[in-house]
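Backbones bend. We report:
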Amino acid sequence: MKNVTDSLVSLVHWPFAGSFGFNTDILATNPINLSVVLGVLIFFGKGVLSDLLDNRKLRILNTIRNSEELQVGAIERLEKARARLRKVEMEADQFRVNGYSEIGQEKLNLINSTYKTLEQLENYKNETIHFEQQRAINQVRQRVFQQALQGALGTLNNCLNKELHLRTISANIGMFGAMKEITD
């Protein structure tokens, strides 16, 4: 670093040749140098910088456009998915309602069928009981009639003799004759 400052100091001691020379005043030379450097940079770098900025702007715009297209596509797919979801939910609700109504209808049908079966069984039971009662009554009647007939025959056989038997037959024939005259 000392060599650089020594060389700058040695430049200060050079004799001035004509109108060309170095200004050693640092405060006066920096703004001029900076303005010259900036002017050259702006003049030559303006096109390059403009091209870089234009390319960057185009890339950003293309990215935004692509993002918007992707967003529109995603929104469309989302709406289609929502519509399918609503449709599936409605179908599921319909299946659920139909299932519940079918279950209720099947339940009612089963209950009605069970009541009808119970009524038929009750009717069969009542008919069977009535039939068995009639059969028992008929059997009792037959036995009573048979016993009464046997008793009557026994009584008649014990009480009737030939003369009483002939008088009974004559009385019965007389009654049949009188009945015949009435009907004629």
User: Anything to note?
Assistant: The mean pLDDT is 82.
